[in-house]
Automatic annotation (TrEMBL):
Record-level Gene Ontology MF annotations: magnesium ion binding; sulfopyruvate decarboxylase activity; thiamine pyrophosphate binding
Keyword tags: Coenzyme M biosynthesis, Decarboxylase, Lyase, Pyruvate, Thiamine pyrophosphate
GO biological process: coenzyme M biosynthetic process
PROSITE patterns, per database record: TPP_ENZYMES
Catalytic activity as recorded in UniProt: 3-sulfopyruvate + H(+) = sulfoacetaldehyde + CO2
Protein known as: sulfopyruvate decarboxylase
Chain ranges of the Thiamine pyrophosphate enzyme TPP-binding domain: 39-146
Presence of the UniProt keyword Lyase in the record: yes
SUPFAM superfamilies: Thiamin diphosphate-binding fold (THDP-binding)
Length: 184
């Protein structure tokens, strides 16, 4: 499976649960926008590494809402401390999905440390997270998403990007739209 397949499954989960969805910078945002643009989506246009932290803050500030973050291996490797921060609180309404395609997909698929020896599911467990899942097919991701609303899912994926177009909205429009829907 590729990132786009994971995004399709996550979008279905988001719609079914009316979750707030944070997507990390670069092609993940473009692919999410291409698959399904909706006000629940928060597209990050900067701040590489911080999608999981923003999602965590959102989950803590809105315990009545389900929050999902789509992150990548490169971004989590850049901000690995996020796994310990999440472990220190483990909100019941927060689900972090790390699409681990073993590459910096948005900059040309240069290999990341997960293409060698680093195992992000083990890092997440070692950081103290109690709910960590690992999947490697669309079917197992769908099954896991159907039964899990919190914790961390590491999706083992193949590198590869679609040619999803650039998001046409301004940052101001993205944040205003998202704030309006997340305030409900
Ligand atoms: Mg990657």
């Amino acid at each position: 499976m590729k990132r786009i397949d994971a995004i399709n499954e996550i979008v279905s989960k988001t719609k079914a649960t009316d979750a707030l969805l944070v997507a990390n910078i670069g092609i993940p945002c473009k692919e999410l926008h291409h698959v399904c643009d909706m006000p629940n989506n928060f597209y990050m246009l900067g701040s590489m590494g911080l999608a999981s932290s923003i999602g965590l803050g959102l989950a803590l500030s809105r315990p009545d809402k389900k929050v999902i973050t789509i992150d990548g291996d490169g971004s989590v490797l850049m901000n690995m401390g996020t796994l310990a921060t999440i472990a220190s609180v483990q909100p019941e309404n927060y689900l972090l999905v790390i699409v681990d395609n073993r590459a910096y997909g948005s900059t040309g698929n240069q290999p990341t440390a997960t293409s060698k020896n680093t195992d992000l599911a083990e890092v997440a467990k070692g950081a103290g997270n109690n709910e960590v899942y690992e999947v490697d097919t669309s079917e197992t991701l769908r099954e896991t998403l159907s039964s899990v609303d919190n914790g961390i899912i590491v999706v083992k994926a193949e590198p590869g990007n679609t040619d999803a177009p650039v998001i046409g909205m301004s940052p101001e429009t993205i944040i205003k739209r998202f704030m309006d829907i997340s305030a409900l």
